[in-house]
Amino acid sequence: MLLFLLYGVLVAQESFYDDTVNLVQVDISGTKPTDIPGIMSTETDSIVKTLQQFNSSGDLLKKNSSVYVKDYGPGQLQSIALRGASATHTRVLFNGLEISPATSGQVDFNTLPVYLFSSSAINYGNASFAKGIGGLGGSIEVNTAQLEQFTGLKGDLGISLGSFSDYRAFGGVKFSSDKFWSNTKLSLRTAANDFSYTDITQEGSPEVTQDHAQFDQTGISQNFGYRMNSNLELNADVLYVNTSRELPGTMLQSDADEEQDDEIFALQLGLNRYGRIWLSKNRAGYDLNRIEYRAPSLNFYSEITSRKWSFRSENRIEIDQRTSFSGILNLKSEEAIYNFIDESFHRTEGALLLGLNRSIGRSLEFGVALQPVYSQDSMVLWLPVAGISFNPEFISWLSLGANYARNAKFPSLNDLHWEPGGNTALVPEESDQVEINAMATVGTLLSVDLMAYYSEIRNWIQWVPGNSGIWSPENIKEVEQSGISINLKLNHKLQRWNFRYIAGYQYVRSIDRELNKVLVYTPEHMAHWTIFLSRGSFDFNLAYQYNGSRFIDAANETYLPDFDLVDFGASYTFVIENLAFRLGGEITNVLDKPYMNVVWSPMPGRAYRVYLTMSFQKK
Predict the structure, then answer these.
(1) Is residue 217 within 8 Å of residue 188, measured between CB atoms?
(2) Burial category of 477 from C-beta neighbours within 10 Å (exposed 0-12, middle 13-18, buried 19 and up)
(3) Is the peptide bond before 428 cis (omega within 30 degrees of 0)?
(4) Residue 572 in contact with residue 538, Cβ under 8 Å?
(5) Which of 31, 35, 33, 32 shows the shortest CA–CA distance to 369?
(6) What span, in angstroms and rounded, lies between the C-alpha atoms of 559 and 347?
(7) Mean pLDDT for all residues in the chain
(8) How many CB atoms lie within 10 A of CB 465?
(9) What are the pLDDT digits (tens) for 392-449?
(10) Torsions phi, psi for 195 (to 5 deg)
(11) Which of 88, 86, 82 is nearest to 65 (CA)?
């Protein structure tokens, strides 16, 4: 594994892409400490984000991390499970407020275009604790609320043409003055996804073309901000994404005619106070998730709507130079509306985290917190967290940490009230997780972070068939999880060449204690690396992904084999008057390997894309 991480040692320096032809001002990101000592969060690499502007957030996470993205095919469902937990144990936050629907409890990352967001981050395990409960595996953050650091007008446009009738475009404009800023973004995508694949279920394994897989998407984000004075900031954010798609059949079902429309809407208002002693960030929001499903051959139609009202207040008070107090209040009221049974269900939840951080000398800091949690259809839970970090003075480039937290997730409204099969007797899933970590940073040249963890989840909810043949959720599992992850970044400049290398590996062991078997669709090994190379106006990148084998049955008798993919991209930048252009192309699955991420759901072979982007800035 060390050889894997060190392969391609020369990589680009921090100023990579940071010039007048950039579409996005690059902010080199990585693993960073959180508000609780000894806990770290991983921000998306900004160069990778720049190259993934036309894609979904699920595609971005494939390229920038070793998390497992369960992908049903181009334009189809993309779900994410962290540290061997399930997709329902991954909370998704928009500017700090949860937008995971109250119905299913999980987000389709194909409905979140990368371009609409200014930044994103992965909070593994206990790093999600201060963001609110429920992220037993962790949480994913996408953000638009961002203080602009320029004065004037910026804009960008992009268009891309790809294989399988895949057309994408984006455009945005930013304005900022001393007091006010506005950032408007639009993302468009349409694709037939009519790729060819080898159908191994038919005699002779013929080449067939996927049909009934049309994908259409429109997304808009708007961020406003107003600096009331040097200490107060007011902002407002709007997100809207409409996705319409045909649901193709699997290799075992060639006559599918299902269709699905997904609608996401979020409106948020924020008020932040910055002070030397008291920091306060407050945000209120409303979000709506609607799924409309149609199966004409079955004469079936359903519409499921999730609505949520949320409020978050995060406060930090510096008591003295060594001691600080934190208070974080999270409130939400959510509703699920099922048109096919003409019923709606409502629930409220609240959590209050009270924490104390204390520094000892210059090297040691510890923190403890307690988070009581309330749900109207359950009991009050008391959830503790503790962390410690050590930064030795004699090794200034090294940081060590350890943390523990108890977390909980209430059943989704589908689990409780789905008809038929819902179970109102379910109890919350609970977890205990301990982690140790280390981070080494040598200027802008090198950064390495290592995490090792152990977790137990009790009352795991799983849908199982009953005596009548109707499936229903039950608290039946105890799951034991353990693993390690390592991430590396190297940067270097040699004469006129810029090099940058990022790599990551994770090992996950997620076991059903009763069966002593690995959970389905939980690869033990995941890895990735990307090499960036630039000189003058030319940029090149080579990316590699490895996905380990996955069991697809609880008895661990059948599995999907591992697969690895190689992608290549290149671009040329040029300036005409005050406009900066980038002309580029990419090849995905360069080696044209056949593979399946989900059983019987085909994935495309080699594919091509060309793109042109333009940006400008006027002061």
Answers:
(1) yes
(2) middle
(3) no
(4) yes
(5) 35
(6) 39
(7) 89
(8) 10
(9) 888 889 999 999 999 999 999 999 999 889 999 999 999 999 999 999 998 888 999 9
(10) -85, 160
(11) 82
- Residue 41 zone, left/alpha/beta (φ > 0; ψ -120 to 50; rest): beta
Interatomic CA distance for residues 227 and 230, integer angstroms: 7
Q: What is the pLDDT of residue 34?
A: 55
Q: Let me know how long the chain is.
A: 619
- Residue 388 in 3-state DSSP? strand
* Angle made by CA atoms 34, 35, 36, in degrees to the nearest 5: 90
User: Could you tell me the sign of the dihedral formed by the alpha carbons of 101, 103, 106, 111, in that order?
Assistant: negative
Nearest of 24, 51, 17 to residue 611 by alpha carbon: 51
- What pLDDT was estimated at residue 147? 63
The residues with which 370 forms a beta bridge, in sequence order, are 354, 384
What is the Cα–Cα distance from 110 to 71, expressed in whole angstroms? 9
Q: What is the largest CA-CA distance in the chain?
A: 75
Report the candidate in 285, 282, 347 with the shortest Cα–Cα distance to residue 316: 282
Which of 471, 77, 419, 72 minimizes the C-alpha distance to 260?
A: 77
HEC assignment per residue over 496-544? CEEEEEEEEEEEEEEEECCCCEECCCCCCEEEEEEEEEEECCEEEEEEE
Residue with tokens 């009548």: 468
- Listed residue (283, 243, 185) closest to 58, CA to CA: 243
- A 10 A CB-CB count for 253 gives 9
Q: Is the separation of the CB atoms in 481 and 51 below 8 Å? A: no
Alpha helices for 181-292 (secondary structure H)? none
Provide the token pair at 402.
């350890």
Residue 481 amino acid letter? Q
Going from the C-alpha of 305 to that of each of 77, 377, 381, 414, the distances in angstroms are 18, 20, 28, 11
Compute how many other C-beta atoms are within 10 angstroms of the C-beta atom of residue 579: 14
The neighbour count for residue 580, using CB atoms within 10 Å, is: 20
Over the range 403-434, which residues count as b (16 or more CB within 10 Å of their CB) and which as e? bebbbbbbbbbbbbbbeebbbeebebbbbebb
CB atoms within 10 A of CB 464: 10
Burial of 87 (0-12, 13-18, 19+ CB in 10 A): buried
67 vs 260: which has the higher pLDDT = 260
In whole angstroms, give the CA distance from residue 500 to residue 498: 7
How confident is the model at residue 543, as a pLDDT?
95
Between these two residues, 280 and 36, which has the higher pLDDT value? Answer: 280
Rounded Cα gap, residues 289 and 264, in angstroms: 5
φ and ψ at 236, to 5 degrees?
-140, 145
Question: What is the mean pLDDT of the segment spanning 543-569?
Answer: 95
Regarding predicted confidence, which is higher, 191 or 253? 191
Q: Which of 15, 128, 72, 2 is nearest to 492 (CA)?
A: 15
8 A C-beta contact, residue 377 and residue 390: no
